[in-house]
Amino acid sequence: MFPDSSTCYEDCKATAEWLKAQTSVRPLVAIVCGSGMGGLADMLKDQVAFNYKDIPNFPQSTVHGHAGRLVFGTLKGRPCVCMQGRFHLYEGYAIQKITLPMRIFSLMGVETVILTNAAGGLNQDFKVGDIMIIKDHVNIPGFAGNNPLTGPNDDRFGVRFPCMSDAYDRDLQQLALDVGQELGYGDFLREGVYCVLGGPSFETIAECRMLHKLGADAVGMSTVHEVIVARHCGMRVFALSLITNKSVMDYDSEEKANHEEVLETSRLRSSQLQKMVSNLVNKMEPIKHTNF
Ligand SMILES: O=P(O)(O)O[C@H]1O[C@H](CO)[C@@H](O)[C@H]1O
Ligand SMILES: Nc1nc2[nH]cnc2c(=O)[nH]1
Question: What are the pLDDT digits (tens) for 119-177?
């Protein structure tokens, strides 16, 4: 239940210092690539990349569609770091371990985190290929006490009881909507509530019906844990879901959720996702620094 020692402040600091010694890039923005969305990292210029296996204290990616590389570079002239592959609870890592990169990024000076994910569409108005800007979340593992902040609180990261009603930055949500409209994406741009489950099994029909009734528009197995830790460290958060499949809500349906469809939808939307994220990064106001 409690974090293991490899997730403590000193180890996060050691990894942040190790990375800072390997690259002169001082990222202000971190981008986390969802399943099949690793192409987002290709947008970075002057890349310096590390395999996760070479980074001290970093977990390894085990999921198809998550390459396991940390890529530094610039996007529209702004220093960024991109996780080409994230970690999920179902891979067997402690929840504190899968969120460790957020703390390392914070210690490196990152101010804004952009998270992307592939998700099933619970909202019946959503279509496969829709991009949903996340305005809120439902943390089902958290209901059972599986929260990444479980254990002793280290005040050097943040407060014991962080607020989550402002988890998703409203200005960035509006900016993303504007950017999407300008790009002509209005037909497939949505807003909604993301629900995280532990996975790796996809949902039953009864579970999908229940989650929809609870107020969730999309369901997945990631992001929320990272958001909680990023907010705990005081970073600004923007997140989006690509609706890669429609959640099965009907006993007459022949549809079956599967990871191949998830990856294929991500591939088909990769160019629009890249344009949206790069334009968002280009237009977002810096928090403290004025030199980018
Ligand atoms: O959330 P990301 O990493 O995009 O991955 C999503 O896609 C996988 C299922 O196909 C699950 O890991 C789910 O969480
Ligand atoms: N839990 C869950 N995760 C997903 N990731 C992509 N699609 C889905 C889905 O339908 N359910």
Answer: 999 999 999 999 999 999 999 999 999 999 999 999 999 999 999 999 999 999 999 99
**CA-nearest residue, atom 6 of ligand 2:** 119
Q: Is the CB of 34 under 6 A from ligand 1?
A: yes
225 within ligand 1 shell (Cβ under 6 A): no
> Which residue segments constitute the domains of the chain, with CATH numbers given?
5-283 (3.40.50.1580)
Is residue 237 a contact partner of residue 230, using CB atoms and an 8 Å limit?
yes
Residues annotated catalytic, as ranges: 35, 66, 88, 90-91, 118, 221-222, 245, 259
CA dist 219 → 184, 193, 198, 284 (Å): 26, 9, 11, 27
DSSP character at residue 40? G
Q: Is ipTM strictly over 0.95?
A: yes
Which ligand is the nearest neighbour of the Cα of 116? 1
pTM of the model: 0.96
